[in-house]
Design brief:
Elements: E1 6-11, H1 15-27, E2 30-36, H2 40-53, E3 61-63, H3 66-71, E4 77-80, H4 84-96, E5 100-103, H5 111-124, E6 128-130, H6 138-147, E7 156-166, H7 169-174, H8 186-202, E8 210-219, E9 228-237, E10 242-248, E11 250-261, E12 265-268, E13 279-285, E14 288-292, E15 295-299, E16 302-308, H9 318-332, H10 338-358, E17 364-365
Parallel strand pairs: 1-2, 1-4, 2-3, 4-5, 5-6, 7-10
Antiparallel strand pairs: 7-11, 8-9, 8-17, 9-10, 11-12, 12-13, 13-16, 14-15
Length: 367
C-alpha cells in the first residue's frame, strides 16, 4: 500500500470547512498543509479552534492571502468553501494553478460559470468534484441493490425528496445565504441541490424531459440587492418516472427521500445528514391491505436495512469517504469525468427550475 498523501489547502475559513478539517485527517491518504483567509489572523484563529478539538499530525500553516495558497508547490488539491458568488473567480484560479478542485455547491451562480470551471479543470488535467457528501456513503450502494431487486419496489414510478430546516430570525436577517450577490439561489442552492442530486442519482443521471419550479417564498437580509428563495418546490418529469422536491428555510428539519413503485416503496429519513449513530439505515415497505367483510386491515410489512457506517466524525463517515475518494483520484493522475458531468447536470436542472419559477411555473424542457 502506498504511503503517498494528497496535500490539501483550504481556501476560505467557512463554517463547513471545520467539519472537513476533520474529514481530511480521517481520510488516511490526505494531509492538510495550509488554510487561507483574507487575513492571517482569521486563518490562525480557524486553525487554533479546530486544532484544539481535532489536532493534525502537522499543524497547517495560516495564510492571509488566497493567491499565496495557490502559489504553494507543496499543495496538490484545494477545498473551496467560499460563497457561491465568489466561487467562479477562485475556481478558475485553482484550475489555472494546476490544483485539483473540490468545490462546495452550487459551484457557480449560473450554468455558464459551471461549464467554464469544469472545462478549465479538464484542460488543466485536474480532478473536479462537488462537495455532496452523501454521494460517498456506503448506504447508497445498499439502496441501489434493494431498489433494483425487482421485488421490493418493483418498477419505479415516483420519487419525492425534501430537505428543510426552520431558520431562526437572525439567520433570515444576517446569514450570507440570504444575500443575492453571495448566495443567489437561497434555499434552492443550499438545500435543493441535494434533493435534485438524489433524484438524478436514483435515475442513473438520465436527463429529465421537463421540469417546473415554484417559488413559494422569498426574502433577503439587509443590503441584499434582491430577494432569494426561502421556500421552493419543483416537479421533474422523466420518460417513465415523475419526481418532486421541496426545500425550505421556513419548515422544520426534514431530509426525506421516498421511492415508490408498483410493488412497494422505500424511505430514507436522513439522506443528507445521517442521524447520529454507527449505523445508517432505510426502510422498505410492502404493505398489504386485507379486507374480510367488515374487518379492514392495513399491514405495514416493513423491512429495515442498515450499513455499518458512522454518521459523522469517523473514518467510515461519508465526509471522510469524500476526501478519501477525491485524494485517490488526485494521486492517480487520472481524473474521473463522471464527477464534473453530474455537477453540470445538477446545476442545469436547478437553473431550469429557477427559470420556470421566474416564469410563473411554466413547464420547461431540460434538453
Amino acid at each position: 500500500m502506498s504511503n503517498q498523501k494528497c496535500r490539501w489547502g483550504i481556501l476560505g475559513a467557512a463554517g463547513i470547512a471545520q467539519k472537513n478539517w476533520q474529514s481530511i485527517r480521517n481520510a488516511g491518504n490526505a494531509e492538510l498543509v495550509a488554510v487561507a483567509s483574507r487575513e492571517v489572523s482569521k486563518s490562525q484563529e480557524f486553525i487554533d479552534r479546530c486544532s484544539a478539538q481535532v489536532p493534525h499530525p502537522h499543524t497547517p500553516v495560516a495564510l492571509g492571502n488566497y493567491d499565496e495558497l495557490l502559489a504553494r508547490e507543496d499543495i496538490d488539491a484545494i477545498y473551496l468553501p467560499l460563497p457561491t458568488g465568489l466561487r467562479h473567480q477562485w475556481a478558475m484560479k485553482v484550475a489555472a494553478a494546476g490544483k485539483h478542485l473540490l468545490c462546495e455547491k452550487p459551484c457557480g451562480s449560473n450554468m455558464e460559470q459551471v461549464e467554464e470551471i469544469t472545462a478549465a479543470c479538464e484542460d488543466a488535467g485536474v480532478q473536479f468534484m462537488d462537495g455532496v457528501m452523501f454521494m460517498h456513503s456506503e448506504r447508497l450502494n445498499k439502496i441501489r441493490k434493494v431498489m433494483e431487486d425487482g421485488e421490493t419496489i418493483g418498477s419505479l414510478r415516483r420519487i419525492h425528496t425534501q430537505f428543510s430546516f426552520c431558520a431562526p430570525e437572525e439567520f433570515l436577517q444576517e446569514n450570507i445565504r440570504m444575500h443575492s450577490d453571495l448566495e443567489p439561489h437561497g434555499c434552492l442552492g443550499d438545500l435543493g441541490w441535494y434533493t435534485i442530486r438524489f433524484i438524478l442519482w436514483v435515475m442513473n443521471y438520465e436527463t429529465p424531459k421537463s421540469v417546473t419550479g415554484r417559488l413559494l417564498n422569498a426574502s433577503a437580509m439587509t443590503g441584499s440587492p434582491k430577494q432569494v428563495p426561502t421556500e421552493f418546490s419543483g416537479e421533474v418529469l422523466f420518460e417513465k418516472v415523475s419526481a418532486s422536491f421541496y426545500c425550505s428555510f421556513l419548515t422544520e428539519h426534514q431530509q426525506l427521500a421516498h421511492l415508490s413503485g408498483n410493488k412497494g416503496n422505500l424511505r430514507v429519513d436522513d439522506f443528507v445528514l445521517p442521524y447520529y449513530g454507527n449505523r445508517l439505515g432505510f426502510i422498505a415497505s410492502n404493505s398489504i391491505f386485507d379486507c374480510d367483510v367488515c374487518d379492514f386491515r392495513m399491514e405495514r410489512r416493513e423491512t429495515h436495512h442498515q450499513v455499518e457506517e458512522y454518521a459523522s466524525s469517523h473514518p467510515s463517515a461519508q465526509e471522510s469517504n469524500l476526501f478519501r475518494t477525491f485524494s485517490d483520484l488526485a494521486l492517480s493522475g487520472q481524473p474521473d469525468s463522471h464527477w464534473p458531468k453530474i455537477t453540470r447536470l445538477t446545476q442545469k436542472l436547478m437553473m431550469t427550475c429557477m427559470e420556470s419559477a421566474e416564469q410563473g411555473g411554466t413547464e420547461l424542457s431540460c434538453s
